[in-house]
Amino acid sequence: MLKKKKTEVYALGQHISMSADKARRVIDQIRGRSYEETLMILELMPYRACYPIFKLVYSAAANASYNMGSNEANLVISQAEVNEGSTVKKFKPRAKGRSYPIKRPTCHITIVMKDISLDDEYVEIDSLKKHKWKNKYIAMVYRDMDSSGGIWDKK
User: Which domain holds residue 49?
Assistant: First the structure.
């Protein structure tokens, strides 16, 4: 029986204290990119979500080099997803004996990396990216100031 060599590794970060929407904003930028390009992007982005994602990408690359013996130059982020975790709920005391609820959202981040040197059926890196917006061509209509009774037609 032949065994197929494993080409993917992953790193999972659970209960990271930030909103899933804020983490998705960063994850959408790095999905489908190479490992080295991802590290540069994450170091230069000004968001707080970049640091835990940077640590997960670094951990997934370390898993790939240790478990599969792959080179970091051949790694590509094939999947990256953010799921909502549990919400930590606390109460803050307010005036006149009232209380105010504080909700701290958490999220679970999964980074899956693929070694392109071990993969026989490698698809182009650009096709792995999820395009959020499709190309839509919007026709701009310019109004002629003379025919529409613009500024100069006032009495």
Answer: 8-82+109-118
